[in-house]
Amino acid sequence: MPARHSKARRGTLLLLLVLLLVIIGSAVTATAQSAEKGNAGKGASLGEKYCGRVEKKYGLMPPGTKYDRVVGPRVYYIKVTGVIDKAVEDYVVSSIRKAEADNAVLVIELNTPGGYLDAALNIVTNISRARVPVVGFVVNRWAESAGTLILVSTHVAAMQPGTIIGSMQPVAYNPATGSYQPINESKIINPIIQVLCEHGATRGRNATALVRFILFNDNYGAEQALRYHVIDLVADNLPDLISKLNGSVVALPSGGRVLLKLSGEYYEIPPGPRIQLVHALSDPILSGLLVSLGMLIVLFGLASGHYASAGIGALLLLLGMIGTGFNPNTASIILIVLGSILVIVELHTPGFGIIGGTGIAMLVFGIALLPVGSTGFAVSPEYASTILHAIYAVGAVFAGITAYAVYKIIEVRRRKPIVWTIIGAEGKAIDEISPDKPGFVIVEGEYWKAVSRGETIKPGEPVRVVAKEGPILIVEKAGGSYS
Known about the structure:
- It is a single chain.
- This protein has 3 domains: 59-268, 2-enoyl-CoA Hydratase, Chain A, domain 1; 273-414, no CATH class; 426-477, CATH 2.40.50.140.
- It contains 15 helices and 19 strands.
- The protein has helices spanning 2-37, 46-51, 86-101, 117-129, 146-153, 186-199, 207-215, 222-227, 238-245, 273-281, 284-304, 307-323, 328-347, 354-368, 381-414, and strands spanning 59-60, 69-71, 75-84, 105-115, 134-144, 156-159, 164-166, 171-174, 179-182, 219-221, 233-234, 249-251, 257-260, 266-268, 426-429, 439-443, 446-452, 462-469, 472-477.
- Helix 4 links the parallel strand 4 and strand 5 (134-144).
- The longest helix is centred in the first third of the chain and has 36 residues, at 2-37.
């Protein structure tokens, strides 16, 4: 009996040892799988917690997928660099409209540290509504923050080797101090996560990785992002990307699946003057400087009575406000109205053209900021070009007049002072003049009452002024004749 009990105990211990090894092996396997997923795998339920179970509905489809129509053969591309702002939003939206009109694929080359959340969200919405595929392609360096938001929301996401994406936690920027304060409020964080779920996870993107971009500021390189299903492709350059896209089927949220038949040709859509101007004014340093300088000039101009300088301050203030988020469409209307008023005032006010010059500058900036060929109120490119050239012409005329007036003023101020005197001037007698009999003479085109020094001067004889006593000239006969 004891031997049998001993064997039973050994069998039980052996069985427990096997179960323990199985449990340890399972734990090791799970740990290895979690490590393989990297940061994307930390908290495996994180994606489901925020997004739920999301199935891929849009984006790049498997080979052999049926399609409804063909897009191509043309490919347009735009370059989004620097801060993502209102100008970039208008640039992307207008480019989508052009690509739709030409049944072309649009590639957005991203090389940006991020930008304004509102502009990025509007870009995401317009990409989702596009009737042609919009491809995001990170080039050169990075597409962080708002750039990552745009990338993962495109129909096809691609990266160039060596580029990075991530760090999407929103921050509050203080233009006065230039400091950044991270935002952790769920009221702001959760809506952004839901945008990623709706516009990113539905394209087959890794929901957990998308959430971690916001909560933990994860960053991925190109190969890592591809491995964790954050992007669809890695391409060396634009021709390589087009080659890999050719023949693919893309499902669009706007409806339908499209086959990409691309010839390999691609064309850039350059930003217009309006977009370049708004983008330049959106630089935080420049906009802050313009606002501060404009306010100071306006205040000092009004306080000192130099109202012409107040107009210059108003121009700088309006341009600076555009960079702080003020609607450029509204700013363009205000500039055009103020500019017209100042030009009219200049026409009825004597001066050196400061008011008129400021008005012309306002008109030029106002016309340049008008939305051309975009949504909302807009003017045609031809109309805007005609008006702009007319403003340039009027401005050139005013500038020429102002420059000439300034030149004459400087020329006069450089001359030596001249003291005018009538002594020594010559003229002729109108009446007979003697010491006791005054008469009139004409000297330098003016009539003067005069008496002679000691002789009688007949009418018509030439005279010379030798002295002046009050309003009466003392004259003598002059040699020669006066005609």
